[in-house]
Description:
mainly alpha, 3 helices, Transposase_IS66_central, Transposase-related, Transposase IS66 central domain-containing protein
Amino acid sequence: xxxxxxVSKYGDHVPLYRQERIVERAGLxxxxxxxxxxxxxxGVQLQALMDALKQQVLQHILLHVDESPVAMxxxxxxxx
Length: 80
């Protein structure tokens, strides 16, 4: 379930309030606050990996990044 939440949030850009509604339709009661706690705990556990990756990446003289934009809702406007 944690992997599903993380992939949906960061890979598929599905906000937590939508994920909360999706799991409710499946008959589960997992509040958004719990999803946030899971994500925070996962971030803490993955910090050592992130530090190691950062150190390895910064050893190179050239970096390539994908700066493709991701459409997001404008707060209060209801538009992407």
